[in-house]
Amino acid sequence: MKQILEENANLKPPKVGDIIEGRVISKKAFAIYLDLGIFGTGIIYGKEFKKAKKELKNLKVGDKVLAKIVDLDNEDGFIELSVAGATKEIALEMLRKKKEAGEKIKVKILGANKGGLLTKVSGIDAFLPVSQLSSENYPEVENGDPEKILEKLKKFVGKEMEVKILGILEKDAQVILSEKLAKEEKEIEEYKVGDVVEAEISGITDFGIFLKFGVNLEGLAPISETNPNLNLKIGEKVKAKIISIEGNRAIFSLKI
Known about the structure:
Elements: H1 2-7, E1 19-27, E2 31-35, E3 41-45, H2 46-51, H3 53-57, E4 64-71, E5 79-82, H4 84-101, E6 104-108, E7 111-113, E8 116-121, E9 124-129, H5 146-153, E10 160-169, E11 174-178, H6 179-188, E12 196-204, E13 208-213, E14 217-222, E15 237-246, E16 249-253
Parallel strand pairs: 3-5, 9-11, 14-16
Antiparallel strand pairs: 1-2, 1-4, 2-3, 4-5, 6-10, 7-8, 8-9, 10-11, 12-13, 12-15, 13-14, 15-16
C-alpha cells in the first residue's frame, strides 16, 4: 500500500471505514477475493464472510461489490473488507444525498409512540415527530393529553406518507423526517413570482414583515418592500405580491 501511494502522489489513500468498490476475481468456500484496482486485492472472509453469507452466495466472478474497509493490511497482505458493515453506511450516504437535494420520499408508517410516528427508510430506523406533521394530520387534542395523542397517531400505522428528511442522527443511525416540509414544498409549487395573495402578518421586525399565506406557508416582506407610512399590526390581513420564491418561502412586496 505504501509503495502504491508513493508511486501515485495525488492519490487519496483509503482508510478504515471507507466504502470501496471491488470486482469479484475468486470465490472460495469461506472467502471472496476482490480486485480493488490500484489498491490491490481485498478479501471478505472469517466472521465478515459469515455475517454476509446470504448476500455473497449468489455473487459470480466479475460481479461488482461495495464493501467497507476493516483492515488496510491484514496478516496475508490483503485489504480486509466487510459487506455487512457497508450496508448501513451505503444507505446512510444515500439518505444524506436525498437530504441535501431536498428530495421527497414515501414511507409506510410502522408504529407510533407519544412523540410521533415510527418507520424505516432504506432499512434505517426513522422517526417523524408530532411537531413535523402537516396541519391536516396534526393531532389536535384538548389539554395535550399524551394518551389521546397516541390514540390519534395510531390511526396512521400502515398508511403511506410523503416526507422529507429533516436530519440524520449519525451516532444512532436514525433519520428524522418531516411531513410538514414535504407539504409546504408541494403547496408552494402552486404559486409563482408575480402572484398577489392575501396574507396575514405573523411578525414585525426591524428588517421586515413576516407573513403567513396559503395553508402552511410563510414569507417575508423585506423592510425595503414595505410602506413605512402603514401602521401594520400582527394578525392583520394584507395584500402582498410575490417577488421571489426561495425554497419553501416566498419573498413579498407590500408596495402594490
